[in-house]
Design brief:
Blueprint: E1 9-11, E2 22-25, H1 36-47, E3 51-56, H2 58-61, E4 70-74, E5 77-82, E6 87-92, E7 98-103, H3 111-124, E8 129-138, E9 147-151, H4 155-160, H5 174-184, E10 188-197, H6 206-220, H7 227-245, H8 248-263, H9 281-296
Parallel strand pairs: 2-7, 2-8, 8-10
Antiparallel strand pairs: 1-3, 3-6, 4-5, 6-7, 9-10
Helix pairs in contact: 1-6, 3-5, 6-7, 8-9
Length: about 300
């Protein structure tokens, strides 16, 4: 822990005066199928021309035996040590609106302290809306729009979002803890989760990264160009279509998955494993994952 009275973060320069910035959160270390949320955050870092603003104290929040720093060795010379720490960046959207980005490794310890520190900083910087991003595997076809689910400590906000709202007890990531601390500070706190087709959950899925950025922009009133991500997703879609169409069994399987999806009228609801004509999500996932592994053999 930091010495008594020491700050748990350092500011790179001075805290700026911002105009109702949106805080967007994506920290590595928890569920992020296809790295979709990490891809969305990297896109935001670049698109907002963000710069370092705050570095959180590694000795307070990071276990460096579990997350070792990087030693840069050059011709036997230990040139420097690169420490991985949570950080907050600041930038602007395409219309000049202020954006804060909380990224880096999910803290290994002192989660309450970290969440309270972030909430205090967010309040000081004038944040009104905070949006977290994540992604998880789901029984959906790649030929349909990426589904999104939402979380919030505020039931009224969850109801307003008109996205999937689950009822389940699951281990939490730090983003869920931040939702509560930010909500307690009077800041609108939302978690957005992209639903990734099971069979692409181990490869990049730019369509989901684009969906997360676009949903965050819609909620916060931001303008961020996602054309580069959409172009990447178009290329991947063509490749996946070719892979599936080349095998009649897998083309039939994808058709059944599409039928199950469409039967839910776009609600992104649960599959219907009791329908004898449609395989279960786990069966579909196993078949297509094996299919893609077979295709990837030899490049």
């Amino acid at each position: 822990m930091t010495p008594s009275g020491a700050s748990p973060y350092t500011v790179q320069g001075e805290l700026p005066i911002l105009d109702s910035p949106t805080l967007i959160i994506m920290m590595t270390g928890w569920i992020d199928a296809s790295g979709a949320a990490a891809g969305a955050m990297q896109h935001l870092i670049n698109a907002t021309a963000s710069r370092d603003l705050i570095h959180f104290d590694g000795d307070t929040f990071v276990d460096y035996r579990a997350r070792r720093p990087l030693m840069e060795l050059r011709e036997g010379v230990n040139t420097r040590i690169v420490w991985s720490v949570p950080e907050m960046r600041v930038g602007t959207d395409d219309d000049g609106r202020d954006v804060l980005l909380l990224t880096g490794p999910e803290p290994d310890m002192a989660w309450r302290h970290f969440a309270n520190t972030v909430a205090t900083l967010a309040t000081q910087l004038g944040v009104k809306t905070a949006i977290g991003m994540g992604a998880y595997p789901f029984g959906a076809p790649h030929t349909r729009p990426v589904g999104l689910s939402a979380t919030s400590p505020d039931a009224a906000i969850a109801e307003r979002l008109s996205l999937t709202r689950s009822t389940v007890d699951v281990p939490a990531g730090v983003e869920a803890i931040l939702e509560h601390s930010l909500n307690d500070a009077g800041i609108t706190a939302i978690g957005l989760w992209a639903q990734i087709p099971h069979y692409v959950s181990t490869m990049a899925y730019p369509a989901a990264s684009a969906a997360l950025v676009e949903a965050a922009c819609l909620e916060a009133g931001l303008t961020i160009d996602t054309s580069a991500l959409r172009k990447e997703s178009g290329v991947q879609r063509e490749r996946l279509d070719q892979l599936v169409s080349g095998n009649p069994e897998h083309a039939e399987m994808l058709g059944k998955l599409e039928a199950a999806y469409d039967a839910e009228h776009g609600s992104f609801g649960a599959m219907k494993p009791d329908d004898a004509a449609i395989p279960t999500v786990d069966e579909i996932a196993a078949e297509v994952e094996q299919f893609l592994r077979d295709q990837q053999t030899g490049g």
